[in-house]
Amino acid sequence: MPALRNRWAELLLLSLARTSMGVQFQAVGALGPLLIGTLVADYAALGTLIGAYSLVGVAVAMPAGWLLVRFGDHRVLLAGLGLMALGGLLLALAPGFGLALLGRLVAGGGASVLAIVCAKRVLDRFSGTSLAPAMGLMLSAWPIGIAAALLLLPLFGEAWRLALLASAVLCALALPALWWGIRPSEAATPVVSAWPARLAPGEWLPLLAVAVLWSSYNAGFAVVLGFGPALLVARGADPAEAGAVASLVGWAILPLLPLGGWLAERLGRPLLACALCTLGMGLALLAWVAGAPPAPMLILFGLLSGPPASLTMAQLGRVLSPESRAFGVGVHYMMFYGGLAALPPLAGWLRDLTGAAAAPVLVAVGFLVVALGAVGVLGLCGVGQAAMPAPASRPGRAG
């Protein structure tokens, strides 16, 4: 089978797949005001559909390494995209909430596998100084997809089923490109042999702190994108305008997503940078709720959201030894997907309970407070120094 030999070209294909994943994930939130009273009955149900996309990841994360070794990167990658396309089709055609929920679960299962495969491929194909920018570019594809969904899907208006169908078609269009361009990794890791590994006693607390940080940060980000358009509509915007304004978050995160974390590492204070950016994200949201103009506050929120993403993933690499990495990464992703599945419905439930359109955004601020606490735990554990050696390295070698 022909395949790409240039690793940067392969990275672009993987980014295409992750862009389609971002569009599909955000489709429900982008169309939220149009789905209320049609496909879903209330905001709690809307939050359930948003969170369901990540629910299957709780079960998929742990055995994902075994699947990769048993069936290979190429097959698992295509299977993930196929499930995303199938689930998206079920959602677009669903006559009611039950089948819509099933479609989100199917698509989310495929997306969970896709996310893990993409991360593995980048680690296989890049190393040294090229790893950080490559990982940043891959991560950037997700908010690009989210921003595109917020900007474009509300333009379908009352034809929201066509918008959902378009998000499924985008996943299907990525299939032939990846079938042609992705070959089995030359540096595959024997995950099966490492699967019985467990964490060393000193690794549990920092790993859990990183997982809580990643889950709460992403849950806050997802709630703002999922419920932000509804707040804008409640304050007088039409759905298309609300989607365009909310999409500013996805565009604003892009400049500092690949570069912000790298800069913080170079300055030697990654945890301090992560804490300050997270605090700034929360303050921007509070200012928006208090009446500040939404566009500049959402741009500020998006800009500050960039550095914590790469900085958090860098901490994951520091807290795990090579022997425990397969098991530890599974624990990390299991908690990540569990948080994304469980926390957005809480925001929707409080929206229904209080009747306040701003309630979900305040819940997102609460999630960011939890993230700040996790950063503090990492600091107490002594994790996060930029010059800290990697677990398998000799003393004095950069991590």
UniProtKB/TrEMBL annotation:
The keyword ATP-binding does not apply. Residues 10-388 form the Major facilitator superfamily (MFS) profile domain. InterPro entries: MFS (IPR011701), MFS_dom (IPR020846), MFS_Efflux_Transporters (IPR050189), MFS_trans_sf (IPR036259). GO terms for molecular function: transmembrane transporter activity. It is a multi-pass membrane protein. SUPFAM superfamilies: MFS general substrate transporter. It comes from the Bacteria. The chain crosses the membrane at residues 46-69, 76-95, 101-119, 131-156, 162-182, 203-232, 244-264, 271-291, 297-314, 326-347, 359-384. Pfam families: MFS_1. It is found in: Cell membrane. One of its GO terms (cellular component) is plasma membrane. Keywords: Cell membrane, Membrane, Transmembrane, Transmembrane helix. This is MFS transporter.
